[in-house]
Design a protein that fits this description.
- By secondary structure, this protein is α/β, with parallel strands linked by helices.
- The chain has a single domain, classed as 3-Layer(aba) Sandwich (Rossmann fold), CATH 3.40.50.10110.
- The protein starts with a strand and ends in a 6-residue tail after the last strand.
Length: about 140
């Protein structure tokens, strides 16, 4: 069954997504970063080229041929994915295909509205019996 991790209190959700992708990649896991739209996909794609400053996160868009080989894939359109290991969602609602993945990471920002939407997603997973963990980024680093 899919395991779900919530990272709350993120001051910069895209940077948090990069940090978590890097950590997962270092642990030998493949990551899909799923964004809500083209603008977010583009911004995240650009950030991944520069984060972290002393390393490199090999990545590509989910529709590219190389997606089957890359440890990190970024996209917003498709429900056909090159792997089913880790899904990092940058959406405000649960994705309908989340259960295809071994692990789902939900990132929640600092705003009141984002926290409210994060609580809704948390309740959705909890009410369906998914194993969950919570990490408060205001208290620790990821």
């Amino acid at each position: 069954m899919t395991k779900v991790d919530f990272y709350t209190g993120s001051a910069d959700k895209l940077r948090t997504a990069c940090q978590l992708s890097h950590k997962a990649m270092q642990n030998g896991m493949r990551v899909l970063l799923h964004t809500p739209d083209e603008a977010t996909t583009e911004a995240l794609d650009k950030l991944l080229w520069h984060y972290p400053a002393i390393a490199f996160i090999p990545h590509c868009r989910s529709h590219e041929t190389a997606a089957h080989e890359m440890p990190v894939v970024v996209g917003h359109q498709s429900e056909t994915f090159p792997h089913s290991e880790v899904l990092i969602s940058l959406h405000t609602a649960c994705l309908p295909f989340f259960s295809r993945f071994e692990r789902v990471i939900e990132i929640v920002g600092e705003s009141t509205e984002d926290a409210r939407l994060g609580r809704e997603r948390y309740g959705f997973y909890r009410d369906r019996g998914y194993e969950m963990r919570h990490f408060d980024l205001r208290k620790q680093t990821c």
